[in-house]
């Protein structure tokens, strides 16, 4: 796209009606917010995956559970989601195992519930702002279409005071209106792609968390015997 084309699009936006301008500004603002959340979420999910990989290597290397637990407590600012799930489960397990009146099944079940609660918080955090991206992807085209319909109506109303209506007279108004639809698609397409990709990646991380909780519960159950 050359400079002339860029300027022509800007001129179309500047000469649009007030309602269409407001629609364009709204869509541009939503687009900038969606890109902000896209980059933020990409880094967050990548960091969660890297920390999960590291903790799984440490956990399955055969290290002492008490040592892993103490490391998680002493380095809270560096722990990942899976490590916090482990910490919650092992803390509850240690506390319940000290109560002699509880049977082993109750102890393990309490640890599992503690891990499940932490798991839900961590997944909610990873899924934060995904609903916003989904809303942008589904609503933005319709908002842009509203701006286009309004702009076309405005352009045709302007013909009422003209004796002759030619394509050269109608075309600028229609072009101004169509820019709103283009901006709506510009906002929607990246949001839809990002939402689908991030939702899939969060689901994969969630499966890894659930698998770990089941395997760790089995380990704790063997320790109660």
Could you describe the 3D structure shown?
The longest helix is centred in the C-terminal third of the chain and has 57 residues, at 167-223. The protein has helices at 3-14, 18-59, 65-74, 81-97, 104-126, 130-157, 167-223. It has 225 residues and is mainly α. α4 (81-97) runs antiparallel to α5 (104-126). The protein is built from seven helices and no strands. It starts with a helix and ends with a helix. The chain has one domain (20-223). It is a multi-pass membrane protein.
Overall morphology: rod-shaped
Major pleated sheet: none
Low-confidence stretches: 1-7
Distance between the termini: 72 Å
Question: How many structural domains?
Answer: 1
By secondary-structure content and strand pairing, the structural class works out as mainly alpha
Strand proportion: under 5%
Order of helices and strands: HHHHHHH
Please compute the radius of gyration using only Cα atoms.
28 Å
Mean pLDDT: 85
Q: What's the total helix number?
A: 7
Share of residues in helices: over 70%
Count of DSSP strands: 0
């Amino acid at each position: 796209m050359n400079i002339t084309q860029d300027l022509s699009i800007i001129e179309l936006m500047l000469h649009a009606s007030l309602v269409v301008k407001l629609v364009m500004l709204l869509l541009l603002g939503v687009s900038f917010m969606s890109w902000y959340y896209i980059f933020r979420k990409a880094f967050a999910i990548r960091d969660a995956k890297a920390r999960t990989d590291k903790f799984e290597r440490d956990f399955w290397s055969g290290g002492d559970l008490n040592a892993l637990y103490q490391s998680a407590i002493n380095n809270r600012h560096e722990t990942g989601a899976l490590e916090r799930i482990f910490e919650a489960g092992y803390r509850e397990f240690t506390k319940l195992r000290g109560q002699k009146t509880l049977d082993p099944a109750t102890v393990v079940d309490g640890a599992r519930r503690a891990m499940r609660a932490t798991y839900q918080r961590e997944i909610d955090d990873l899924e934060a702002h995904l609903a916003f991206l989904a809303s942008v992807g589904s609503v933005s085209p319709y908002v842009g279409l509203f701006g286009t319909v309004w702009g076309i109506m405005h352009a045709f109303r302007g013909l009422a005071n003209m004796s002759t209506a030619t394509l050269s007279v109608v075309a600028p108004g229609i072009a101004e209106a169509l820019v709103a639809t283009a901006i709506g698609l510009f906002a929607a397409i990246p949001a839809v792609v990002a939402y689908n990709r991030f939702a899939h990646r969060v689901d994969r991380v969630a499966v890894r968390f659930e698998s770990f909780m089941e395997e760790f519960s089995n380990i704790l159950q063997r320790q109660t015997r």
